[in-house]
Amino acid sequence: MKVAGVLLAGGLSRRMGGGDKALKPLGGETILARVIARVRPQVSALCLNANGDPARFAEFGLPVVPDSVEGFAGPLAGILAGLDWAAAAAPECSHVASFATDAPFLPEDLVEKLVRAVESEDADMACAASGGREHPVFGLWPVRLREDLRRALADEQVRKVDVWTARYRRAVAHWPDRPVDPFFNANEPADLAEAERLLATPTVYRDRMMVGIVVERRKLSNPWQDEEWLPVAVLPGTPPQPPGSVLVEEPRLTRYFAGTLPIELFRKETASYKYNLEIGEPRVYVALRRDEAGPLPWRPLLATVAPDEAQAAMEGGEDIVDGVPMPDAVRRWVESFVAAHHVEEPFQKRKRR
Questions:
Q1: Cis geometry, peptide bond prior to residue 297 (ω within 30 degrees of 0)
Q2: Of 99, 140, 282, 292, which shows the fewest CB atoms inside 10 Å?
Q3: Is the four-CA dihedral 187, 189, 190, 195 of positive or negative sign?
Q4: Continuous H helices in the chain
């Protein structure tokens, strides 16, 4: 899938006091410059959606496309502008990814995960989510629906993104919201101050390690259940097999390659990793989620080496969560991270008052 990108900067920025909040300085450069640096490597072509004089964005060297719907019709108008631009300027791109220009920490794997969500769920479009909250302006949109969107905006006066997307099959790609929400956005002056503070904070996570997920289907002699699915192994790196490939086939069990996921290590979570390393056989905890549209009925959702994160994933009750043996390469990586970043907190004896 080839993907073009549109940076949405067509709003009025009322809460920031007007003007272009994307041009506000942050850590020695503009928010927009930071966003472009994260977005440009993810897409095949990129444009900027903005209204008014395009010359104010000349330094960025991007084509500037205004809304085709009058009256500041919101992010849907910017998305339509991006779809129209891609159809004319980047016809090889079947989809357009949209990005808010007030989010300086947006994920560097945003497009990759949105594409994966669309393909795995056979969806029309996808949006991002973090911390249980969806972010519809960070989305992946098929160019083929641009006339449908134009009619919704012009003839039906649709303005809310979720009202329009409810008509289609939409996937959601999830990111953790700690230690920093990657979709943090600077809407008002206080948010800019918080963004400056976050920039001054030392790097909170190490480069992720990709692992392949192996799952097993076991046949059961059970009148109420024919089979069960479980994660059974992780493979460091990105194995070449496509998801759904059969790895082992025996009379009563079959093992499949289910896909790849990142394991991320956070500086503030080293106590949890250390506990995992010291309680016998270290584990990688894998969560699977039901997916009737994918190559397998269960798709990989989460891979973590933090036992408390695995416990939180079990609370919903609908996902399959289990620990698998931690490969030596992953164990050495985790041990190195803990050795570099873990700080023992002194024991504080409670005093009776």
A1: no
A2: 292
A3: positive
A4: 31-39, 75-89, 110-121, 146-154, 161-165, 189-200, 270-278, 307-314, 328-341
Structure tokens given for 82? 């991006």
CB 304 within 8 A of CB 310: yes
Taking the C-alpha atoms of residue 244 and residue 17, their distance in angstroms, rounded to an integer, is: 52
Domain residue ranges of the chain, discontinuous segments joined by +: 3-200, 209-341
Contacts for 336 with CB less than 8 Å, ≥ 6 apart: none
d(CA 294, CA 271): 36
CATH topology of domain 3-200: Spore Coat Polysaccharide Biosynthesis Protein SpsA; Chain A (3.90.550)
Convert the pLDDT of each residue in 273-291 to its tens digit.
Answer: 999 999 889 999 999 998 8
Residues 86, 312: Cα–Cα separation, whole Å: 41
Model pTM above 0.85: no
The reported pLDDT for the residue numbered 68 is 85
The string of pLDDT tens digits covering residues 183-219 is: 999 888 899 899 988 887 755 555 578 899 999 999 9
Coil, strand or helix at 192? helix
